Amino acid sequence: MFRTGLVHSSGIIFIGTYGPAPAIIWKYDPRTQKLTRVGAPGEYQLDSMVEAPNGKVYIGTAYQGLVYELEPATERIRSLGTPPVVSTPWIFTMVRTRDGEIYGARGVGLFRLDWQTGKMESRGLVPGEHATPGPGRSEPIVRTLEERPDGFLWGDTNRWIFTFDPKTCKITPVADVVGYDDACYGVMHSLGESPFQDLYFQVYSRFSGRTPKRPFGICRARTGKIEPLAMEALGGKCWPCGWWQDGQRRHWLVAQSDSASGKSSMAVVDVLNHRVIERWAIPGREMPPTRLAGPGLWFISTARGTLYRAEPERKQLIPVCVNPEPVACRCLAASPLGRLGAYTYDCGFAFTLDLKSGKVADHGRVDFDDHRCVFGPAVFAGKEGRYLLANHGDTLPRLGVSDLEANHHWAVGETAIQLVRMLDGTVWGTQGALQGGHTEFTPGRSWEPAWAARPGRLFRYRPGERHLEVMRDLSPVGPLVEVPGRPGSLLIGLRERVFVFDPKAGKAVADKELPAAAAALVTDMAASVAYLVLTDGSLWSCRVGKAEQLTIQRLATDFGPGQRGCFLLPRSRRLIAIGPDGTVSVFDPDKRTVARVKGPVPLAAGPAVHPAEDVWYFADRHVLQYALPTAAAR
What we know:
Shape: elongated
Strand order of the largest sheet: 16-15-14-13-18
Largest sheet: 5 strands, mixed
Strand content: over 45%
Structural class: mainly beta
CATH class of the domain at 2-236: Mainly Beta
């Protein structure tokens, strides 16, 4: 996704991206209307940009906290290393003052960059406590530096507002925003030159779980006191994104997102009179944009990644280019009508792909406050697959639902480690912990389908509901499927046992001991049989008799491995198991034979099985279709 940008004095707009490593530097030329790639210097995340008086561009990064130098004429990029500051290795902000000096922050440590020599000097750490209350709090970080007319810099940590005097190098904590509003996760304000001595800011709650009581405030330069900035027209999810000088009038620009429609608009705010004087329309379903430093009125929306030119006289933002890089799928499911659905990491949006037409549909941001997503299962709920269920978020992941017709999204419960669709569109699954922080798929740490065998709390999701129905009276269970021939009932594996669970009765009505623990269960409804893959590699059939009796029969002694997926092909009814190295095990129920085929290493998300064809899909930044080789190819 687009992460940062700068309008250069030459008129070129430079843009930096977030992931995957190496992040990309792009440039957009308004004269040719072309977006071209400049380079990829190596870091995962490009977080800030500033132009020096000599025209060179400096770029701050995470997660190593580097500063890159870009020479626009030659497009040469070199690393200046890290500023001599011991703090969180994120450089979220760098600013050029009216005097032509460049200052930045690495974590909560300030530094000066000498653009004539490329050397960096420490200006000290912002003192004080920087942790905010609530879950998922941020590492110590300065997000924005803003210059007052008197030359002082306003800055923020997660909770503190402070000032920095470039002449004396003195850092002064001014106000604790948590004391003003305890929903505070971070303090958001404008970058660069401010027309006012006072600081106008927003309380950003993000993962705190609270709604700010007073979302906007003014920190007075003279007294250091915070006063509420009350504006009824600015509610919901907002984002301060810069100042705009309209003749003699100076306005604050605040992007606002409407959760109902998923659309954003730009509020033009008269801060002295505490009112919104007009709104600029923003097309599409992008996240609220932020203004880029430099001449003109240019904005970027980070996710999915769009560059806009503002036309104030028409009261709108015009998209001029979008990020051409594909996003990363973190889960994948196939619907009964033949479309794929995924949640994504880089931008946190939900997408579907119609397998017949090849058309991709954008269903908007799943969670406003987290553009990331853990690896995990996914499934379509509802008769025709109107709802997509998958885990979303990374810092505090949750199981989410996307209504693909209304493009609404909501969290329904704790994270799921398996999701299984029933014939009537109901979904059953099990809850379990998922690790976040994976920028790429990590075998052994990232979720894979074999996690269904891990004990988890059983739950049911009815299409359209706002919450899960968790079976709290049951002990944790393992893999599950719908009982063949008994719609609505579950066949569940739990260690060396398999049992039938009747949801209406709320109890097990039949069970059977197994020679080894169940690793995967797969149902063939047409043949009224379930397949049990055990941890010893053996494959068994399981049938339910009329007298609530379970009968099992061994079909093979060496089937699998199937860590990356175990499923039935819909036409041939062959059973498939996918190993970590791409090995495909195939059980033919007619011949009672097991064959193996070497395939490519599966991509990170999936598998998703076509509802009518003998093909399946894995995805990452692209989708691959897999099929067994024909007899002639073998």
